[in-house]
Structure formats: structure tokens, C-alpha cells
Amino acid sequence: MTPPAGSIPVTVLVVAKAPVPGLAKTRLAATLGEQVAADIAAAALLDTLDAVAQTPVAHRVVAMTGDLDQASCARRIRDALAEFTVIDQRGDGFAERLANAHADAAAVTSSQPVLQIGMDTPQVRPDLLADCARTLLDVPALLGMARDGGWWVLGVADPLTAECLRDVPMSQPDTGAVTLAALKHTGVSVHLVEELHDVDTVGDISPVRAACLSSSRFAQVTQGF
Predict the structure, then answer these.
(1) pLDDT digits (tens, 9 = 90+) for 108-124
(2) Are 7 and 91 in contact (CB under 8 A)?
(3) Do residues 30 and 78 lie in contact, with contact meaning Cβ atoms separated by under 8 Å?
């Protein structure tokens, strides 16, 4: 696919999991039920895909895992994915899948800088992603911390830099700090960008919804929580 004229020469990579009831957002499911948690995850993914689709970058890639046929909002997700190059996640643990996703995204987009996000920050806006992409043209790496101690965005000018993720314990209170240290250990400087709140528990819903547009799917599906 030929990049649009004037686009930022960066690949935005979304690492996503099919929102299948019973498998998606298990910490939310423990309180709200499996179907509600899957519906929230689907809304967050769709809002994220919308934001990325509106970001003026050269390439948009989704690294997907899980059975979309069993997912909440499966048809809408498939329709949204038509705007993306979709690749399968590969690897045993999440850290390995992240590192592989960076390598695979680079392989299908001529090794452009890769800006990677997940599906837990539905409040993310195209202008913020575009700012991050432009910044990545001038720095070797950037990182945006999440308020739970993780991170919500990682950008690397050289996709090989993401190999350091293989040794980072994921989904831990210090994942952000350990990722930052691992990046610096490769010898690159790391530019920190805006911190965001991501969605893992019921307590995260309200602050994330407050940062979303009122028209967003996440804001609509989480009314009353």
C-alpha cells in the first residue's frame, strides 16, 4: 500500500487481543461479568482503531491475537481492521509477542520507525499520536508512562531497539520503569511523552471516560460504572 502524500514516515502499531468474553479484561470481568468486560474491551479497541486511522502516518499495523469470530462486536472490529495491515502475534509470553510485533511490523513497512500502543487507552487522540510520531523522527526512542506503573506508548526509530522488551516483566507495577531502564541500557536516549491512565480495573473506568469524547464508544458503554 502506497503511503498517502504528506504522511509522517512512521508506522503506528496496535497490539490487540480479540475481546472474547471470559478471556478479555479478566479483572473487569471479576466485578462486572464476562460479557460486560468484553463489551468494554471492544469499545476501547474500536476507539483506539478510530484514532489511529485518523492519524496521518505512513502505515498502520495491528498485531492481533485471539478468535475474532467469538469476540464482542466482531463485525465492527473486522470492518475497522480493513483500514490496517493485520499480522498475527507470535511468541509465548507477552514480552516476546511485543518484541516480535515490532519486528514483524517493521518487516511489512520497510523498517520505518515504529510507534506502538495497546488497546487500553481509548481516550488517545489522533493529534497526540501524530505528535508522538513526529517526535520519533527526531529521537531514537520515546516512552509514555501509564499511571498504574506500566506504559501506554513505545516508539523506536530502529525496530531492533525493541528487542530489549524480551527481558522486561510485563503487567507489573514497575513495568514502565524497567522498560525505561532496558531502553537506556541499549545505549539510546529516551524521550518521555504524556502520561495516560489506562483501563485494567473498575476504578480505572471513570478517569478514562472523563478523558474520552462523550461520543466515544467507551464513554457510551461505560455509562453508570
Answers:
(1) 998 899 999 999 999 99
(2) no
(3) no
